[in-house]
């Protein structure tokens, strides 16, 4: 039975593939040891990776090959059966592109910990980054093929991209759960009472925009009014003179958020707090969700028909204007 312990390292030395003995704290050992650490972290993340488990297993095999090259002296390099090459780097780039198509672009910093799957992938990503730094340090003292450095660089990006896919899936599950709560009356909303008995169409949206402008003019607050349909598609944007350019996107996103969440945007802020069920949700939907007042959902026959949003004043002013518009057209 082979022994796990050999006692040959008791003096602080270890052997490279090829026979050379080095101190265990030397740069080559630190480099391939950190790659091994990254491999183990990926192995843990793989347990939660679902459809990406086989992909991660393939990556682990390539990391063994990469670490073997780092752990070889000249004699050992001549005996290696395979190496990391540009095709391996290209494979990671294809993986990254595919993941970003699923998850969409990210416009804010991601706070790891949305769920176990993404958190473990982020942890593995940071260890791969450290492995890359160790290999770069090694490259300052001895030749290291650039393909190894490129592979580690792309690998950290690939783990990030897979984590984003997992975060998006977690967001969808969370949103579905919250929507079910909203539909069943779990969240209070000023617009949660039965909606109109006629469709929310462009004519209605125009009338609401005019009502919003009239109220905003009375308050001397130039605003932007936006309306989306039940699918979150933009129906109308109405911009008053002198309103802020930034209010264009904000009003549209308020309308989108209200329709997507079937809830007034003012109701989402507390739920999205650190201890709330929606913590971190503002990073989903490509950063379109707005967590402050000014957006209202539109219901027709108790079904979501769209959303409206107002931006340009303070939160309180936006809420006053959008609520007036809603009540003026749909409740009069």
- Tell me the CATH topology of the largest domain: Hypothetical Protein Ta1238, Chain: A
The profile of the biggest β sheet is: 4 strands, antiparallel
Q: What is the helix fraction of residues, given as a range?
A: 40-55%
Low-confidence stretches: 185-194
- DSSP helix count? 10
> In the CATH hierarchy, what is the architecture of the largest domain at level 2?
Up-down Bundle
| Alpha-carbon Rg, integer | 28 Å
Beta content comes to 5-15%
Which descriptor suits the 3D outline? elongated
H/E series: EEHHHHHHHEEHHEEH
Write the layout of secondary structure elements.
Blueprint lengths: L12 E3 L5 E3 L3 H20 L6 H18 L3 H4 L8 H18 L12 H24 L6 H38 L18 H18 L4 E6 L4 E6 L6 H16 L6 H4 L23 E6 L2 E9 L3 H16 L2
Antiparallel strand pairs: 1-2, 3-4, 3-6, 5-6
Helix pairs in contact: 1-2, 1-5, 4-6, 5-6, 7-10
Summarize the structure in words.
With about 325 residues, this protein is of the alpha+beta class. The chain has 2 domains: about 15-180, Up-down Bundle (Hypothetical Protein Ta1238, Chain: A); about 200-330, Beta-Lactamase. It contains 10 helices and 6 strands. It has helices at about 25-45, 55-70, 75, 85-105, 115-140, 145-185, 200-220, 245-260, 270, 315-330, and strands spanning about 15, 20-25, 225-230, 235-240, 295-300, 305-310. The strands form 2 sheets. The protein has a 4-stranded antiparallel sheet, with helices on both faces. A two-stranded antiparallel ribbon has the order 1-2. A hairpin with a 4-residue loop joins strand 3 (about 225-230) and strand 4. Helix 1 (about 25-45) packs antiparallel against helix 2 (about 55-70), helix 4 runs parallel beside helix 6 and helix 5 (about 115-140) runs antiparallel to helix 6 (about 145-185). The longest helix is centred in the middle third of the chain and has 38 residues, at about 145-185. The chain is elongated and about 90 Å long. About 40% of the residues are buried.
């Amino acid at each position: 039975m082979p022994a796990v312990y050999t006692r040959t390292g008791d003096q602080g030395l270890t052997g490279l593939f090829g026979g050379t003995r080095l101190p265990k704290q030397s740069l080559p050992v630190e480099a391939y040891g950190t790659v091994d650490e990254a491999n183990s972290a990926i192995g843990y993340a793989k347990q939660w990776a679902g459809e990406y488990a086989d992909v991660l297993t393939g990556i682990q095999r390539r990391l063994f090959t990469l670490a073997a090259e780092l752990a070889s002296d000249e004699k050992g390099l001549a005996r290696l059966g395979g190496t990391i090459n540009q095709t391996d780097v290209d494979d990671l780039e294809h993986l990254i592109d595919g993941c970003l198509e699923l998850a969409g672009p990210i416009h804010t910093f991601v706070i790891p910990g949305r769920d176990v799957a993404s958190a473990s992938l982020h942890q593995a990503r940071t260890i791969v980054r450290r492995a890359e730094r160790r290999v770069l340090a090694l490259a300052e003292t001895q030749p290291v093929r650039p393909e190894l450095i490129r592979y580690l660089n792309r690998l950290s990006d690939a783990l990030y991209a897979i984590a984003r896919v997992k975060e998006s899936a977690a967001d969808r599950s969370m949103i579905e759960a919250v929507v079910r709560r909203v539909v069943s009356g779990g969240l209070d909303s000023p617009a949660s009472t039965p909606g109109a008995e006629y469709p929310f169409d462009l004519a209605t949206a125009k009338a609401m925009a005019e009502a919003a402008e009239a109220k905003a003019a009375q308050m001397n607050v130039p605003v932007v009014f936006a309306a989306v349909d039940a699918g979150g598609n933009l129906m109308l944007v109405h911009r008053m003179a002198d309103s802020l350019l930034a209010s264009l996107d904000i009003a549209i996103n308020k309308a989108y958020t209200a329709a997507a969440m079937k809830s007034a945007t003012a109701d989402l802020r507390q739920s999205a707090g650190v201890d709330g069920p929606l913590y971190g949700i503002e990073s989903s939907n490509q950063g379109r969700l707005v967590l402050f007042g000014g957006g209202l959902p539109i219901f027709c026959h108790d079904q979501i028909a769209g959303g409206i949003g107002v931006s340009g004043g303070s939160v309180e002013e936006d809420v006053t204007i959008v609520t007036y518009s809603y009540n003026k057209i749909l409740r009069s």
